């Protein structure tokens, strides 16, 4: 099971259903991805919460523009069965700048625009718009 894709679909479905927030099981990678989505404006905020004694969750607050959902689609690029790596010079805009790509780089999880500025490539995780 692809845990990153599961998290993204949970966020997308909550956004489309008009929910205010969603709880996602915690991991450092998921927290880094959620921070990138906050920087991109796709979600409002993220915080780590402990529920049920010892289990950690990410409480993700959904961002909307009026009554319209902010996230319309998500495309997973690198999958557990096939890893896709991209160089800094090969990074292109997503949907003519209306979307963004998230990369896992040696400097951490970051948005493609930031990775291009810092001249680092890495594993292309997903595109969102």
Descriptive labels:
three-stranded antiparallel β-sheet, 129 residues, single chain, Dna Ligase, domain 1, five-stranded antiparallel β-sheet, alpha+beta, globular
Q: How would you characterize this protein structure?
A:
This protein has 129 residues and is α+β, with helices and mostly antiparallel strands. It has one domain: Dna Ligase, domain 1 (2-Layer Sandwich). It contains three helices and ten strands, in the order αβαββββββββαβ. The strands form three sheets. Strands 6, 7, 8, 9 and 10 form a five-stranded antiparallel β-sheet that branches. The chain has a three-stranded antiparallel β-sheet with strand order 1-3-2, with helices on one face. A hairpin with a 2-residue loop joins strand 4 (64-65) and strand 5 (68-69). The protein is globular and about 45 Å long. The mean pLDDT is 92.
| CATH class type | Alpha Beta
> How many beta-strand segments?
10
Global outline:
globular
Within the CATH hierarchy, at the fold level, what is the topology?
Dna Ligase, domain 1
Radius of gyration: 14 Å
Could you name the ranges where pLDDT drops below 50 across 5 or more consecutive residues? none
Reported for the largest beta sheet, the result is: 5 strands, antiparallel
CATH architecture: 2-Layer Sandwich
CA distance, first residue to last residue? 23 Å
* Total separate domains: 1
In short:
The chain has 129 residues and is α+β, with helices and mostly antiparallel strands. It has one domain (3-128): Dna Ligase, domain 1 (2-Layer Sandwich).
């Amino acid at each position: 099971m692809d845990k990153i894709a599961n998290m993204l679909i949970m966020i997308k479905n909550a956004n489309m259903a008009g929910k205010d927030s969603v709880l996602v099981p915690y991991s450092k990678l998921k927290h880094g991805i959620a921070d990138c989505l906050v920087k991109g404006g796709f979600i409002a905020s993220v915080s780590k919460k402990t529920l049920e004694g010892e289990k950690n969750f990410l409480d993700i607050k959904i961002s909307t523009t009026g009554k319209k959902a902010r996230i319309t689609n998500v495309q997973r690029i690198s999958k557990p069965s096939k890893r896709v790596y991209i160089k800094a010079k090969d990074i292109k805009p997503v949907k003519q700048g209306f979307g963004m790509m998230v990369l896992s780089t040696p400097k951490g999880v970051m948005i493609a625009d930031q990775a291009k500025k810092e001249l680092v490539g890495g594993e292309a995780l997903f595109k969102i718009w």
